[in-house]
Design goal:
By secondary structure, this protein is mostly helical. The protein is built from ten helices and four strands, in the order ααβαβααββααααα. Helix 7 packs antiparallel against helix 8.
């Protein structure tokens, strides 16, 4: 999970649909704007280019008409994460609230070699929102039922491939000798691109950088 900036104002169609007996909150420009704002990736697991797209209510609306059509309550998620979250998590960190920098509050670790399960933990205990977000992320990456465990395993495979590729870029930048300045700048640009919120599984890559003093100096983490 990484912070994103949500565009304003709300699509005008939401107020129109809200007044209808069976209004549709996926109206007008809602979907393309959510796709753009959330970089076409699930806001919970950060899997990019998802095919099972859900317009997710960050706070369960439970037939509250205002929450159901509130632009600030509509998020972009995959079916796996939306079904895992359901109505069970109601005090999560809001990734669109830039005063809550997710990767300053939660640590994301994964070691692709040897293969390990993702480790997601609170930086500081005691925050209900942080603890609940950690609990959801653990459920997303580990699975809560037999079916969800299969989905989670598929998700972790994509995560490991992405992190291994990021690690290879870092290896080339720091340990591949004989690189020209142009080649080194190309690799540096690719590393920075992989750290942008639009990239897949950015939070895990941010923490690879945060855990290494030299990486932090050469690739300072940007706040978005």
């Amino acid at each position: 999970m990484i912070n994103i900036t949500k565009t304003q104002p709300a699509p005008p169609c939401l107020e129109i649909e809200k007044k209808k007996k069976s209004g549709n909150y996926r109206c007008g420009t809602v979907l393309p704007r959510l796709k753009a704002d959330f970089h076409n990736k699930c806001y919970i697991c950060e899997n990019a280019g998802i095919t099972n797209i859900n317009v997710e209510h960050f706070r369960p609306h439970q037939d509250d008409i205002d929450l159901k059509f509130d632009w600030n309550n509509l998020f972009y998620a995959c079916g796996h994460c939306n079904n895992t979250k359901s109505n069970k998590y109601q005090n999560l960190l809001d990734c669109t609230n830039l005063s809550q920098q997710i990767t300053d509050l939660i640590q994301f670790d994964i070691k692709p070699f040897p293969y390990e399960m993702p480790k997601i933990s609170a930086i500081q205990k005691g925050s209900i929102a942080v603890d609940e977000t950690v609990s959801l992320l653990q459920a997303v990456y580990n699975g809560t039922t037999q079916l969800k465990q299969i989905e989670s395993a598929n998700l972790r495979q994509k995560l490991i491939v992405e992190i291994a590729a990021f690690g290879e870029l870092l290896r080339q930048y720091y340990f591949k000798f004989g690189l020209s300045d142009k080649e080194k700048e190309r690799i540096s640009s690719e590393i920075r691109r992989k750290l942008h919120p639009a990239a897949a599984f950015t939070a895990f890559k941010v923490w690879i950088i945060k855990n290494n003093k030299q990486f932090k100096t050469d690739f300072p983490i940007q706040k978005y």
